[in-house]
Every structure is written in C-alpha cells, then in structure tokens.
Amino acid sequence: MNDYVRFRLDWTEEDYGHMDEKIRELLKALHQFRIKTIMSCEGHIRKSWIYAGVYPYPWVILILNPSDLRRMEAKLKEWNRQNKGENWILSGKRVHGSFTPAYIRSDVTCDDDTLTVTALVPENDNEKDLSATALAAFQQQVPRLASFISA
To answer: Residue 122: CB partners within 8 Å, gap ≥ 6?
Structure first.
C-alpha cells in the first residue's frame, strides 16, 4: 500500500468519479470529517463472491489515529442511537501490523503503531440474509449516514 493513497485527503471530483456511485457520498463525508480511507465498495450480491467469503454489503476501510477513532466512535454511537435498527459499526479493529478486516479480502499493512485500521460496515444481525433486498436496504442508509457525518 502506497502512503500517497493511504493518507490522502485531497480528493477531487474526478477521483470521486472513479468510486462506486452508491458509496461516493459517504466517502466525501468521511473525507470532510478528516477521516482517511483506503478502500471501499458499495456492495454486490454475487453468489460466487459470497461462497468465497467476500463481504456483500457496503464497506469502507478507514485508517484512524487515536483522536479520529474517538471521533468516529462517538459519531457512530450517536447515529446508532438515533437510527435504531440501522446500526453501522467499526469491524475488525487491529492496531498496526498486517490486517484483514472481517469478511473483506484485503492485505492492508499499517506500520504506525498509533493507527487503527478498521472497516466501517452496516451491522447485520442476520448474516444469513445475503439478499438483494438486504443490500438495497443498506445502500439506502448510506446517503443518510453521509449527511449525518457531514453535519
């Protein structure tokens, strides 16, 4: 992973044009909130991916310093309080070293032991519900979560 990509916050509209459309506004909101992102996906239901263990719902990989981690946790706690049943969580946290988030295939290396690499994902109480309906419901939450983070 190249540091230029990892720590970049100065994204242009052209850069955003290359990102998945249904997650783009969330990425913009996170960047405006000064949260660093390195990978994301709007989610896709493909049986071959699910069988391979690929997470089918929207996700964003974040790199957080201790202050950013506290701010993000506080923001999500308030979102989850206000939006019962539409919880978003930080999943698979690990400080420094090689990291593979739960359900997400990636090989992210973070050599700074003050940073946390984690995945922002919708909380899925029914992990067996790998349906297009569930995906659409999570994708519909994304613009509202983006607005909430930007506020």
So the answer is: 57, 58, 86, 87, 88, 89, 138, 141
pTM of the full structure: 0.77
The two tokens of residue 8 are: 């970049």
Mean pLDDT of the chain: 76
Give the Cα separation of 65 and 115 in Å (integer): 5
DSSP state of 97: E
Q: Name 37's bridge partners.
A: 62
Spell out the domain ranges in the chain: 3-150
Token pair listed for 92? 């698979």
From the CA atom positions of the chain, what is the Rg in Å? 15
**Number of separate helices (H) and strands (E) present in the chain:** 6, 6
Q: Are 55 and 104 in contact (CB under 8 A)?
A: yes
Distance CA 77, CA 39 (A): 23
Among all chains, which residue has been given the structure tokens 């050599």? 111
Question: Which of 85, 25, 94 minimizes the C-alpha distance to 60?
Answer: 25
Give the chain's residues under pLDDT 70: 1-10, 46-55, 92-113, 125-130
